[in-house]
């Protein structure tokens, strides 16, 4: 055995001290993986929802000079999107080079045929199977698990096999990130700390004036007593306690009797906000048991102090500095970014459109919030771009999509709720985010050398959402769906009023329609084979012929039969029919939740006024590249084979797409 | 008290002067080493070294006795009893040096806390400034103003909290430096030091109080508030600081005691100290 004598100990101490002195406070950034130099480099900018018509129009007006420059260097063309053109589906096509039949992502949600309950289609969470109970506590004997349900290899996993490094920033449908040595951080589908796509909290003295039944948020009634408000902020469920109760943190708000300022005291933090002001990120620890807690981050917005008190708290995001759930590869990549930039939005859809849709935030407040998201993203983009030296850098921006969803009503004069006075103020909102994207592209172009390929991709374009189609009501009216109690139509969600023994079909998700198939659905009645096939064709044909009585237009542009359009190992998981809505139409707000309203088509009254869940031909994405391509109609699933080919890698057999260079 | 505090403050200013631009761990190793050596010397000259040596030998002898006569319960039990008595004696030998060490150690701990316990503010990062009033004064009625400062921006109107008898502001540093915020109340001026990101190691005064003995002892960095002032205390919520090492953040107290003990033991032979 080797003993350390006192002299050695002192020497070691001096050496350690010297190292500390030399290291200062700098963080050493090491290469994560792969070759230090590749013959080609690719920078891919993924601008969610960027529409080719708008890009062309604003390029022609000279407002997008970097896009114009890129076009002059190679290619600009519409990009065929996925069916249906939803981001999780479309970006999965991009990632895997397959259509949905191969990667198995058909919608944000699908249903469990056992009980007709909606479930997330991209991820599956399971808690520990066995627990040890002690009093009110239970201790898991094995770990819980979150699984990414997307099938097929991501292109950066294939690049890894060839020692080509990649940084993949926030690409949708990559939660939890697939196993890789590459640097990746998850984007869309990453949940908040409550396990949802984002639940905000709103504390107000006028809760009675607000619809309590809003999706994506909780309304709390509070009272201002002695210039003080007290309440609780709910956190993740406590799986260490029996019945899995929610954790919560008490907080107090002290308001000045006259001045429009308030102090929020939560855990060991105190901060002052002026009326109408947002806080920076606040870290909170939710205690599970005395030795265990989980960390989350949120922002506070003091909307109003008087006459009514209104405080908004953002969804509690996973803390990137101490992530309770897997959000990056390697695991410390999220922490590295947090140390460099402070806390940042980790939630998949960071713009709180639900708060705007439900009038908790107004247009200006939503934009302030989304500007904070954008500011974070732009800083990190500069950082990643500056250190990019080989392989692939993919960088994703969500604000292009979310702002089009929420502000299309200001550029669409045919929107039933178009407001010309507000349009003057907000009509440039969409154009402005395109200009921000153009600035990002300009930076990428400046970074590029002769061996750098620049690609700009969007997953789909956009279309107005004026009229909402209740697919389940249509099925009911056409005899394909039956209710237990006709008088209670429209009162319940999740098909609680459905008589499954007499229902042949039902719609779930944003574009999916399912046959109530015998042997697949727990109460299925339609036999597989000719009966089902004929029924699918019959429903598809009737849907395509349906005319909206108000406008005289077809609501459904195409009703796609799944087996006709998909290929791959996951085709059997597809909805039987994919609803390709016509321009101006989309599924209603209640139909995806299994609520069967009275009207088949109704005006879309929401601020969410632009959409893309229509027929794919109506909303192609964009494709720019500083090289010429050999395809007239490139598709999203061609991107992965193209990236691989640039590095001399053959297209894997299971990919649907083909290289376009 | 303030004169005494000024002297102590000055000593620590000089001690830490060479380390202010270095990694804080270097300063921590230095002060731990210095404290360890100081404690060793105090121990060396105030303890009964012969008595300690004798007692430790006795403990060793009784341990040997236990091992040799492990099959004889009577002797084993007696040896255990003797070990217990020897331990009490050993503690009694350590009591005197502890009495000598306790006061300087408290003074060191208080100072080290203000050098390593708080992070200085960063430009653009707002914090809460709290002015607590004496019970006879109502925050809604006093005439209290903060003079504009070149380095500190007062970002909000005063937030008056009657139930806490205090007035809060959000302040935001504009640039690096040490500033004195001047607070005027009922014609009297009270100043509070604000430290903004100067060096990696700098002393921070989070709170200024009236001059009771204990307040002066535990918050020694700034001159006390005058007894006649309506202000009881002024506080700035500086962020806590920890010492990161290989991805783990250490509280300064753990680092300080750990290093002092390790270094003290490492040098005990050099100084011929029996512990």
Largest sheet of chain B: 6 strands, antiparallel
Number of strands of chain B: 11
CATH H level of the largest domain in chain A: which superfamily?
Alkaline Phosphatase, subunit A
What's the Cα radius of gyration of chain A?
Answer: 26 Å
Question: What does this protein look like?
Answer:
The complex is a heterodimer of chains A (661) and B (275). Chain A folds into three domains: 40-105 and 152-189 and 359-462 and 619-654, 3-Layer(aba) Sandwich (Alkaline Phosphatase, subunit A); 191-335, no CATH class; 466-615, no CATH class. Chain A is built from 16 helices and 34 strands. The longest helix of chain A has 25 residues, at 363-387. Chain B is α+β, with helices and mostly antiparallel strands. Chain B has two domains: 2-117 and 248-267, no CATH class; 127-239, Immunoglobulin-like (Sandwich). Chain B contains six helices and eleven strands. In chain B, strands 1, 3, 4, 5, 8 and 9 form a six-stranded antiparallel beta sheet that branches. The longest helix of chain B is centred in the middle third of the chain and has 44 residues, at 73-116. Chain B is elongated, with a radius of gyration of 25 Å. The model of chain B has no long low-confidence stretch (mean pLDDT 91). At the A-B interface, helix 1, strand 15 and strand 16 of A face helix 2, strand 4 and strand 5 of B.
Topology readout:
The complex is a heterodimer of chains A (661) and B (275).
Chain A: H1 6-23, E1 41-47, H2 52-60, H3 65-73, E2 75-79, H4 87-96, H5 100-103, E3 109-112, E4 117-120, E5 123-126, E6 131-134, E7 137-140, E8 145-148, H6 155-161, E9 166-169, E10 183-185, E11 200-204, E12 217-221, E13 228-237, E14 246-255, E15 261-266, E16 269-274, E17 277-278, E18 282-289, E19 292-298, E20 300-304, E21 310-313, E22 317-318, E23 328-329, H7 332-341, H8 353-357, H9 363-387, E24 391-397, H10 399-407, H11 420-426, H12 429-447, E25 452-457, E26 463-469, H13 471-477, E27 505-508, E28 512-515, H14 530-545, E29 556-561, H15 562-565, E30 577-581, E31 584-587, E32 601-603, E33 610-611, E34 621-625, H16 639-646
Parallel strand pairs in A: 1-24, 1-25, 9-10, 9-24, 11-12, 26-31
Antiparallel strand pairs in A: 2-34, 3-4, 5-8, 6-7, 10-23, 11-21, 13-14, 14-15, 15-16, 17-20, 18-19, 19-22, 20-21, 25-34, 26-32, 26-33, 27-28, 28-30, 29-30
Helix pairs in contact in A: 3-12, 9-12, 10-12
Chain B: H1 2-16, H2 24-46, H3 49-68, H4 73-116, E1 127-133, E2 144-146, E3 152-154, E4 159-161, E5 166-173, E6 177-185, E7 188-196, E8 207-209, H5 213-218, E9 231-236, E10 243-245, E11 248-250, H6 252-267
Antiparallel strand pairs in B: 1-5, 1-9, 2-6, 3-5, 4-5, 6-7, 8-9, 10-11
Helix pairs in contact in B: 2-4, 2-6, 3-4
């Amino acid at each position: 055995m080797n003993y350390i004598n006192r002299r050695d100990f002192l020497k070691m101490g001096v050496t350690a001290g010297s190292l500390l002195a030399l290291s200062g406070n700098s963080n050493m950034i090491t290469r994560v993986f792969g070759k230090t130099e590749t013959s080609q480099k690719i920078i891919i900018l993924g601008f969610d929802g960027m529409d080719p018509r708008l890009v062309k129009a604003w390029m022609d007006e000279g407002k997008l000079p970097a896009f114009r420059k890129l076009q002059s260097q190679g290619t600009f063309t519409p990009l065929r999107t996925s069916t249906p053109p939803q981001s999780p589906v479309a970006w999965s096509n991009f990632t895997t080079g397959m259509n949905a039949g191969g990667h198995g992502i058909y919608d944000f949600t699908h249903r469990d045929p056992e009980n007709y309950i909606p479930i997330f289609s991209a991820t599956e969470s399971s808690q520990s199977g066995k627990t040890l109970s002690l009093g009110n506590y239970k201790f898991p004997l094995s770990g819980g698990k979150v699984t990414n349900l997307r099938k097929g290899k991501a292109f950066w996993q294939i690049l890894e096999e060839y020692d080509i490094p990649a940084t993949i920033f926030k690409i949708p449908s990559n939660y939890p990130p697939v196993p890789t040595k590459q640097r990746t951080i998850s984007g869309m589908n990453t949940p908040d700390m409550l396990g949802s796509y984002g639940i905000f909290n709103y504390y107000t003295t006028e809760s009675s004036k607000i619809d309590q039944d809003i999706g994506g948020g909780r309304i709390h009634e509070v009272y201002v007593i002695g210039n003080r408000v007290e309440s609780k902020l709910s956190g993740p469920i406590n799986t260490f306690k029996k019945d899995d109760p929610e954790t919560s943190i008490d907080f107090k708000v002290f308001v000045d009797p006259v001045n429009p300022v308030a102090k929020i005291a939560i855990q060991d933090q105190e901060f002052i906000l002026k009326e109408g002001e947002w806080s920076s990120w606040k870290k909170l620890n939710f205690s599970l048991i005395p030795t265990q807690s989980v960390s989350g981050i949120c922002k506070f917005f003091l909307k109003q102090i008087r006459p009514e008190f209104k405080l908004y708290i953002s969804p509690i995001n996973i803390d990137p500095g101490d992530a309770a759930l897997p959000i990056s590869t390697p695991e410390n990549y999220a922490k590295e970014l947090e140390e460099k930039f402070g806390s940042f939005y980790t939630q998949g859809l960071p713009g709180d459109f639900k708060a705007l849709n439900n009038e908790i935030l107004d247009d200006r407040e939503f934009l302030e919030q989304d500007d904070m998201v954008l500011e974070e993203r732009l800083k990190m983009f500069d950082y990643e771009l500056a250190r990019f030296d080989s392989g692939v850098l993919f960088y994703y921006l969500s604000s292009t999509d979310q702002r089009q969803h929420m502000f299309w009503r200001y550029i669409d004069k045919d929107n039933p709720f178009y407001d010309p006075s507000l349009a003057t103020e907000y009509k440039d909102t969409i154009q402005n985010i395109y200009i921000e994207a153009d600035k990002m592209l300009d930076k990428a172009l400046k970074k590029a050398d002769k061996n750098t390929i620049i690609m700009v991709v969007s997953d789909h374009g956009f279309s107005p959402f004026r009229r909402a189609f209740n697919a389940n009501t249509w099925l009911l009216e056409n005899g394909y769906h039956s209710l237990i109690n006709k008088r209670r139509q429209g009162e319940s969600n999740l098909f609680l009023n459905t008589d499954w023994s007499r229902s042949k079909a039902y719609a779930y998700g944003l574009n999916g329609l399912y046959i109530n198939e015998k042997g697949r659905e727990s109460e299925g009645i339609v036999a597989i084979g000719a009966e089902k096939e004929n029924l699918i064709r019959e429903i598809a044909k009737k849907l395509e012929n349906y005319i909206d009585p108000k406008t005289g237009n077809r609501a459904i542009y195409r009703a796609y039969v799944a087996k006709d359009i998909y290929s791959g190992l996951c085709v059997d998981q597809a909805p039987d029919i994919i609803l390709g809505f016509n321009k101006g139409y989309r599924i209603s707000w209640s139909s995806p939740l299994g609520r069967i309203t009275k009207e088949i088509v109704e005006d879309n009254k929401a601020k969410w006024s632009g959409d893309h869940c229509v027929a794919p031909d109506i909303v192609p994405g964009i494709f720019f590249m500083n090289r010429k391509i050999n395809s007239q109609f490139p598709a999203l699933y061609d991107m992965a084979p193209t990236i691989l080919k640039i590095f001399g890698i053959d297209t894997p057999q299971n990919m649907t797409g083909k290289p376009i260079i | 008290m303030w004169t005494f505090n000024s002297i102590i403050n000055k000593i620590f200013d000089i001690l830490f002067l060479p380390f202010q631009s270095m990694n804080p761990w270097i300063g921590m190793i230095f002060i731990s080493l210095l404290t360890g050596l100081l404690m060793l010397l105090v121990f060396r000259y105030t303890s009964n070294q012969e008595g300690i040596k004798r007692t430790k030998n006795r403990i060793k002898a009784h341990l040997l006795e236990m091992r040799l006569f492990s099959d004889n319960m009577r002797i084993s039990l007696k040896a255990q009893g003797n070990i217990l008595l020897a331990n009490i004696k050993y503690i009694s030998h350590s009591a005197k040096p502890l009495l000598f060490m306790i006061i300087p150690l408290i003074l060191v701990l208080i100072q080290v806390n203000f050098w390593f316990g708080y992070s200085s503010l960063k430009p653009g990062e707002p914090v809460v400034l709290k002015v607590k009033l004496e019970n006879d004064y109502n925050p809604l009625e006093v005439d209290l103003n903060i003079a504009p400062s070149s380095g500190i921006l007062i970002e909000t109107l005063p937030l008056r909290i009657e139930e806490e008898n205090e007035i809060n502001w959000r302040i935001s540093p504009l640039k690096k430096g040490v500033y004195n915020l001047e607070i005027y109340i009922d014609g009297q001026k009270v100043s509070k030091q604000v430290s903004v990101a100067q060096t990696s190691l700098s002393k921070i005064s989070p709170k200024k109080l009236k001059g009771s003995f204990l307040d002066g002892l535990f918050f020694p960095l700034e001159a006390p508030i005058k007894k006649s002032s309506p202000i009881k205390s002024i506080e700035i919520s500086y962020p806590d600081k920890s010492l990161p090492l290989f991805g783990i953040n250490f509280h300064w107290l753990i680092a300080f005691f750990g290093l002092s003990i390790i270094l003290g033991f490492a040098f005990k032979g050099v100084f011929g100290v029996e512990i």
